[in-house]
């Protein structure tokens, strides 16, 4: 392939520079091998233009290897419109390595008359595609393919719908967005604007439906769409499609209406039937054409599908039939794009088209014959490996008590909002059993555990959920009933521990006598702290603990000491309630953690009495694990403990189970800053006065504001300097006279403990510049009005740019000095006596005044006017 235009191609460009033709198009690609890709450039062109005789086109590869000239490989006339030719070029390119490459076609022959591109006939036609080659992926990417042509017609007052018919055979996620047509260098085309009423122009990011709700102005418009591909959340490709729409006035036609479900779901292995009904709202006897595109209409799926179109009529019916199988199961939806076109041209108007996207989800059948059987403190699950052997394994879900969940036809997996958690994922379809032992800790006796099973696939998709199965663990092990803090102390703390013995023991397997071993658990560390020698010896007090700072967790194991020392089971771990406090202004927030196998359904909060710190009284009951104690006195110590009330679902365990936390103390402190004041500023340039006014923060959210700090910065972004302090909560104004008022002002509120609020809003006042020019002066040397200078002393002017012209437009004077000090010298001439004299007349000036400002890059003030030179007499020569 050549790296330059052929001479013949150059001559065609020269001859047909004004006969342009390119209307719409895109670039797509497919992977060949290694770093080699084949690109397809598709451009739709005006077949009536002589420029279509040029067959070559240039492609820029975006890898600094230059460009190639390709020859057209096919040309097809499309209908409608009959004058449009679809032209295709193909070319292969090998890239130097992994990276991101922007492949671009920039052709000079965009068609003229495009209303939303300035002078479109002279704007190159540009289409682009982004290719990303990843060094970490062994699955090279292929771009989307686009099945629906991008040259179309719309009518004023009729809704317009278009869909590019994008298909991604790699299974990547596709996202669509509206974009602007491009011109030279891939920049936005000059003067590009979205068509009138473009606020009604939208693109559905998921389906790709471009909807223009009733175009209001006729014309020829180009817009673009980006079709992006994402793989595992990473952008891998982006195709820019340029689309041309002709909006026609007075069509007297409405597009056909398509009725079909937006989402349909089917069990893999079943036959899907999607009914479609198309109606023409204008003419009963209209002939409607129905076609379809989409991945389901492509090989190999198309071999198992049929698109049946009923007899001609209005309405006209169709149906999509798909004999699905397990290979069709996936997380991502399939889409079927339906296109309906009326025959408006037979009635002397324009054919109109409507699109509708039907999303299809194929879901694998659920695992069957699921059973749940309790064995000791475990539950054994078993199920059958049924349909869809292309799955990779199973997911086991669990919750307490039954949910009654039955999946509908479009719900794969287990919803997040029904209380189930994903307990485990099993790899391999032969794993059709699972033992739930709560990850080695055992399940809680008396609890009802329920399960759902799904099959999982390589892309993360899941089957329907199985029928819900449940089982309840019997009390065949000891259960802890109390872990209660009796004494709060850093070294002498005491915790009372109690448990209930098993309801039944297999005395053959575990003959008496029995012994309990008591363990303290700290993370992954398990420490034996004591033992008992009787099955009924079920209480234990642990002493000399730091119950102020630590939470304690325990477990009890049962051993048979009959024929040999045999482990007979263990309790589920249980922890003491641990209370923490956070103090703030007149308030203490309580938080506690209760990690217990039983269910605590209520908590009573106790607080010490101010007059008797060792006496506690209940102040609240809650079913939450947080409580805020407010309206407290600051700098006073308050102490708390929490008492829980809970139960097992076991008849042999009395309820309620009552446990106490340690005592935790705290002191409310005012650490909360006051509310932010709201500031207003009013400047008076004539009096050089600034007045600041703000609200009293005690009237909003504070009650102890004692005063305010007032700050000033010389610009919006410069340092804020403290300029005043008002030390009364009711003193909410500040007035400053006879000083520089320009700047930005801020106020903060100060409370009784010196907490300072954040800065208020900025209230800015600019400089008060003065600069005016006279309209006459008399440079005659009499000492009166001899100079062209500002009328009165100017202020806050940094510089000027003054130009003075005579009546013929000649520049006679220029300065940047705000004082000007022009004496008319450049207008003077020498008279017959050898003296200088100024020429009288009217002169014109323009003056840019660069004023000081708190705003950055403030534009200059422009003064324009005339100045008259008068009373010319002999003046002394220099």
Number of helices: 1
Number of strands: 61
CATH topology of the largest domain: Immunoglobulin-like
Largest sheet: 6 strands, mixed
Oligomer: single chain
CATH hierarchy: architecture of the largest domain: Sandwich
Low-confidence stretches: 1-19, 829-837, 874-878
- Judged by helices, strands and strand pairing, the structural class is mainly beta
Name given to the CATH homologous superfamily of the largest domain: Cadherins
* Bulk shape: flat
What's the number of domains? 7
* Highest-level CATH class of the largest domain: Mainly Beta
The helicity comes to under 10%
Mean pLDDT across all amino acids = 89
* Ends apart, CA distance between termini: 78 Å
Classify the beta-strand content into a percent band: over 45%
Radius of gyration from the CA trace?
42 Å
Could you characterize what this model shows?
The protein has 878 residues and is an all-beta fold. The chain has 7 domains: 7-248, Immunoglobulin-like (Sandwich); 257-363, Immunoglobulin-like (Sandwich); 368-472, Immunoglobulins (Immunoglobulin-like), CATH 2.60.40.10; 479-575, Immunoglobulins (Immunoglobulin-like, Sandwich); 578-666, Immunoglobulins (Immunoglobulin-like), CATH 2.60.40; 679-765, Immunoglobulins (Immunoglobulin-like); 776-869, Sandwich (Immunoglobulin-like). 1% of the residues lie in helices and 48% in strands. It has 1 helix and 61 strands. The strands form 16 sheets. Strands 6, 7, 9, 12, 15 and 16 form a 6-stranded mixed β-sheet that branches.
